[in-house]
Amino acid sequence: MGRSGKLPQHIAIIMDGNGRWARERGLPRVEGHRRGIESIREVVRAARELGIRYLTLYAFSKENWGRPKREVNFLMSLLSAYLDSELKELEENDIRFNVIGRVGDLPPGIRKKIERNISQTRNHKALVLTLALSYSSRVEIVDAVRQLCRRVQLGELRAEDITEGEFSKALYTSGIPDPDLLIRASGELRVSNFLLWQISYTELYVSEKYWPDFRKADLIDAVEEFQKRERRFGKTEPEESGVKRLSLTSGALR
Ligand code: IPE
Ligand code: IPE
Ligand code: MG
Q1: 83: which strand partners?
Q2: CA–CA separation, 238 vs 235, rounded Å?
Q3: Pocket of ligand 1 (CB under 6 A)
């Protein structure tokens, strides 16, 4: 890992490709999900070791409810087991647990475990681990609009005071900085309804690996690639690199 480059403060990951990983091995899709949990474990640990402050994992989308019942039930039981098995790890490593999404859609037993993990880790400081569950970015935006409209109706807020900052605060991710780096596993070049507002200026990185094969070394590769990027946020590049580019161009012309 290059020591000079800046670390991303917030990494978001679309954990995709569990089904294909399994299919290529002649296994049922659910085996891919089971193996995917091991990747989550390793990536959370690695992010903590690297000093990443926020890690947001897309675990289950609102659209994923439309999968066969058997697969949805399996994912719910995996999630339930994960919430139990990882609590100790979160406690020992100063990791704060958080969720975004329509958590009310989840079975009551899982909701209870989520509440427990959130409350037992609420004072942890090293890393905020956010799981996106029953998440849809469009629903998140619509929910934010509703919340702001209600506040306007109640006279707590004037329409002209709805700024980008105020809008961000109405999203599920309120208080979490926008991701610096978004990683998608399995080679797909799409965002699949994840953090649409928040990724306006996020650096994108697509790994060809299926999620069950995505491990610590792959996270480090992504961070190293991030460190090579020049983030301009719509501005011009810094002065020195402008000079460098000029001399390169004149060299090429000679
Ligand atoms: C990602 O893997 C896990 C979830 C969406 C829950 P997939 O299950 O989408 O695997 P592929 O994309 O079909 O291979
Ligand atoms: C995105 O993956 C959702 C999660 C990783 C939880 P999907 O497999 O559901 O998305 P599409 O169908 O490839 O867009
Ligand atoms: Mg998929």
Answers
A1: none
A2: 9
A3: 15-20, 60, 64, 75, 186, 211
Q: Consecutive sets of 10 residues in the chain, 254 residues long: mean pLDDT of each?
A: 78 98 98 98 98 98 98 98 98 98 98 98 98 99 98 98 98 98 98 98 98 98 97 86 48 44
Q: Which residue has the CA at smallest separation from atom 2 of ligand 2? A: 16
What predicted TM-score, i.e. pTM, was given to this entire model? 0.93
Q: What is the CATH number of domain 10-136+178-231?
A: 3.40.1180.10
Instruction: Quote the ligand 1 centre to 186 CA distance (angstroms).
Output: 9
* Domain range list for the chain: 10-136+178-231
**220: closest CA among 15, 58, 50, 76?**
50
Is residue 15 within 6 Å of ligand 2 at its C-beta?
yes
Q: Is 252 helix (H, G, I), strand (E, B) or coil?
A: helix
How far apart are the CA of 185 and the centre of ligand 2, in A?
Answer: 10
Catalytic annotation, residues: 16, 64
Ordered alpha helix ranges (H), the chain: 18-24, 29-50, 69-85, 87-92, 108-120, 137-153, 164-170, 216-228, 239-253
Ligand having the closest approach to the CA of 75? 1
Question: Ligand 3 center to residue 116 CA distance, Å?
Answer: 29
CB contact set of 244 (below 8 Å; sequence gap of 6+): none
